[in-house]
């Protein structure tokens, strides 16, 4: 983390340290893991939470935004109904129903036998989520999808939380040529404030074809720190869809490395922001080899006094010729009191590439609204229809009717409560 001058520790920072001390005797891990945990919490004690002076957190001053931290662990909660009908649900508390070709074990076992150490490495010097999760993670699920496996139904990995704290890790390895749809689901079951950190380490093997959906549906007073770290193999095709429709303070990080030639990444995201929430999606994408394709499109809808952030950085290495990378962030700002900050970046060291980025922030087009009103549609309904169409445009790119219908139903329910 960037060096900062010594300053008084905040109540939230002290509460994080106290939480670690209170849990230390019960956290799984051998001596090596315990040493890593100690080091991460010492970093937090020394540096504190990041402020806007830390470039990666410039739009999310965590030291100011994080006001309190619950001390107790969240109570055990039953798995939720799956997002999509017919899905197989794997929750940390109940992971016994894995389909053929999917091996599942508890992350606590990897912590206990020491094999989790490499997976606790930080993404960068400013990786606060990695430090917090590395210090506090108690369990999670490790998934290994065998080469050639084709999942008949979506596989849903659930993190269901009813207040308190929860920190989990999900290492997932997709074998060569495997195909399937996965849902990473974060759900709140109570109005009690929660603090959650979740890290998914996803390795996509050569020529695998995967759809991965992150659905974050935290409670109105919850803090959610999410991170997904992705390695793409040669010829791998990954469609990653991120949907944020909850939480008071949310930071979702996406870190992708295209390591295999001919890989194809399609990243789509929808952020629905209301109340006084703050949601930050920060993405880094490294094109490290030739002949890879990536497109990233985010659609954001901002109501009330909500604030949103999108930071997207694409880096193209000198060797990564023939890269085709495009990024866009489009926002509907439907309140005079709401805010959205967008920071797209390109760092290109190759000379034979096609790369572009763009960002827009706008209100609903008055001409479109007028047209619908002249057709007998009242203004409130017309505005709702236009907002839904703005989102649906990228949801429909999933090309799976069941997935599209389920996501659109969730989004419509949220919009009906906020529009």
How would you describe what is shown here?
This protein has 419 residues and is α/β, with parallel strands linked by helices. It has two domains: 74-363, no CATH class; 366-419, no CATH class. It has helices at 11-23, 31-47, 62-65, 107-113, 128-136, 366-374, 379-395, 401-418; strands at residues 88-91, 102-106, 139-145, 155-161, 164-174, 179-188, 194-204, 209-217, 223-232, 237-244, 249-258, 264-273, 278-287, 293-302, 307-316, 324-333, 339-348, 354-362. The strands form two sheets. Strands 1-4-6-8-10-12-14-16-18 form a nine-stranded parallel beta sheet, covered by helices on one side. Strands 2-3-5-7-9-11-13-15-17 form a nine-stranded mixed beta sheet. The two termini are 40 Å apart.
Strand-and-helix sequence, N→C? Answer: HHHEEHHEEEEEEEEEEEEEEEEHHH
Category by helix and strand content: alpha/beta
Estimated radius of gyration: 21 Å
Shape: globular
Structural domains: how many: 2
What distance separates the N and C termini?
Answer: 40 Å
Please describe the biggest sheet, giving its number of strands, its sense, and whether it closes into a barrel: 9 strands, parallel
Task: Give a count of the beta strands, DSSP E runs of length 2 or more.
Answer: 18
């Amino acid at each position: 983390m960037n060096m900062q001058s010594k300053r008084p520790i905040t109540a939230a920072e002290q509460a994080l340290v106290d939480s670690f001390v209170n849990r230390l005797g019960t956290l799984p891990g051998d001596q090596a893991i315990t040493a890593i945990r100690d080091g991460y919490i010492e970093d937090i004690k020394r540096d504190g939470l990041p402020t806007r002076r830390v470039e990666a957190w410039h739009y999310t001053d965590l030291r100011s935004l994080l006001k309190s931290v619950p001390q107790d662990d969240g109570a055990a909660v039953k798995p939720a109904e799956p997002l999509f009908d017919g899905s197989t649900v794997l929750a940390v508390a109940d992971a016994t129903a894995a389909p053929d070709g999917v091996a599942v074990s508890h992350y606590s076992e990897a912590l206990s036998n020491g094999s989790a150490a490499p997976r606790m490495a930080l993404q960068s010097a400013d990786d606060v989520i990695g430090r917090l999760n590395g210090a506090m993670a108690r369990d999670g699920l490790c998934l290994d999808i065998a080469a050639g496996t084709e999942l008949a139904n979506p596989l849903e990995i659930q993190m269901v939380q009813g207040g308190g704290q929860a920190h989990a890790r999900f290492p997932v390895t997709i074998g060569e040529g495997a195909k399937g749809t996965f849902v990473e689901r974060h759900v709140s079951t109570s109005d009690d404030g929660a603090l959650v950190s979740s890290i998914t380490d996803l390795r996509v093997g050569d020529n695998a074809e995967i759809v991965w959906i992150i659905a974050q549906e935290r409670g109105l007073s919850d803090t959610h720190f999410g991170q997904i770290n992705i390695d793409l193999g040669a010829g791998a095709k990954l469609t990653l869809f991120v949907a944020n429709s909850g939480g008071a303070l949310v930071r979702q990080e996406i870190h992708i490395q295209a390591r295999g030639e001919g890989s194809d990444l399609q990243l789509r995201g929808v952020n629905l922001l209301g109340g006084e929430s703050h949601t930050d999606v920060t993405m880094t994408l490294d094109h490290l080899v030739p002949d890879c394709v990536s497109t990233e499109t985010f659609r954001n809808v901002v109501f009330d006094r909500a604030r949103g952030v999108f930071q997207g950085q694409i880096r193209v290495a000198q060797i990564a010729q023939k890269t085709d990378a495009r990024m866009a962030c489009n926002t509907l700002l439907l309140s005079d009191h709401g805010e959205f900050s967008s920071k797209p970046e390109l760092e290109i060291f190759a000379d034979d590439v096609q790369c572009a980025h763009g960002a827009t922030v706008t209100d609903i087009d008055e001409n479109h609204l007028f047209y619908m009103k002249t057709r007998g549609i009242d203004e409130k309904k017309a505005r709702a229809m236009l907002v839904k169409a703005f989102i649906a445009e990228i949801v429909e790119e999933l090309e799976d009717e069941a997935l599209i219908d389920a996501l659109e139903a969730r989004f419509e329910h949220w919009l009906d409560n906020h529009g």
